[in-house]
Amino acid sequence: MLDGVVVRRAPVAPARVELGEVTSATIEAAQRRIAPYVRSTPIVRSETLSRRLGTNVYAKLEVFQKTGAFKVRGAFNRLLALTPAEREQGVVAVSQGNHAQAVAYAARELGIRALIVMPETAPRNYAEATRGYGAEVVFTPTMHEAFARAERLAGKGLVSIHPFDDPDVISGQGTIGLEILDELPCVTDVVVSVGGGGLAGGVGVAVKSRRPDVRVWGVETEGTSSMARALEAGHVVTLAKVSSVASTLGAPAVTERTLGLATANLEGVTVVTDEEALVAQRDILERLKILTEPAASVTLAAAERLRHRFSPDSHVVLVLCGGNAALDDCWNPG
User: 131: helix, coil or strand?
Assistant: First the structure.
């Protein structure tokens, strides 16, 4: 039963997951490929958070990435890998948030047609921004129906760009891990959000390949705990309902690939409440002067729970993965 503490890793049969599709080599290649299109985002130390947690706390500011979130890394890496014929056909993606904007933006920059399928529950600011980047947006009643609609469109010729279950996408996200190691060689711990598991999987491979001693901690909210439940069960678990203020973490299920990467590289997944995510969001805004999404502020909430795992000599990086929060949602949640 999930009680909000770290969920320990459960074994996954290696034959079920081709982990070799995402390696240090594919992530290093992605870093070279996407360098002209994305930003290398800064890492800053927070004196206030360091004192609070009794260690050294840093923030990796993907909120300053193009489109306001990390997702453009994977989107560009995937779209740049398309053949000329695939570029001509165009792409389709499913997202209720940052992946939508990332694919739309990358497609526009590369001259590729993009169609984005969103559930009707998607925040208004995400839909408007996605259209603003030039993509066509189609709405469906639920996320499950969005994936089904995208699958049908892919069957008609569009190339599907999965939000997390794709080696090129995961490798692109993993470039964050390389930047952390390059910018902060003394890092001992990385805390990263888990939605479908692509970000955590990529960062985990990047970090562990170079520095096996560095610990990578995943975090979810109670209403989006698909990875924690999968680790607990030892197999993929589909949530009957996804509900959280951290809406961009709302994948109803992880995949064999991302579960395998989490099993191999994460210390575990910490499950926090929506209230903790919102308190952390306000703390980050007040102390770091940065507005994050709840999907990013959960890393601070998790670090609070994990503080007994850190020593005064630890160097803990919180990956603030996105800042596309609507003010109305922040101060009027639910």
Answer: helix
Straight-line distance from the first to the last Cα atom of the chain, in angstroms, rounded to the nearest whole number: 26
Same-fold call for 14-69+166-331 versus 71-160: yes
3-state secondary structure of 287: helix
Dist. CA 95–CA 72, nearest whole Å: 13
On whether the CB atoms of residues 226 and 216 are closer than 8 A, the answer is no
* Residue range 155-199, pLDDT digits in tens: 899 999 999 999 999 999 999 999 999 999 999 999 999 999 999
**CATH number for the 71-160 domain, one of 3.40.50.1100, 3.30.950.10, 3.30.450.40, 3.30.70.2860?**
3.40.50.1100
Q: What is the pLDDT of residues 267-296, one digit of tens each?
A: 999 999 999 999 999 999 999 999 999 999
Enumerate the domain spans of the chain.
14-69+166-331, 71-160
One-letter amino acid of 22: V
Residue found under tokens 């890393």? 299
Burial degree of 121 (CB within 10 A; 0-12, 13-18, 19+): middle
Place of tokens 């991302």: 258
Percent of the chain with pLDDT strictly greater than 90: 79
Q: Which fold has domain 14-69+166-331?
A: Rossmann fold (3.40.50)
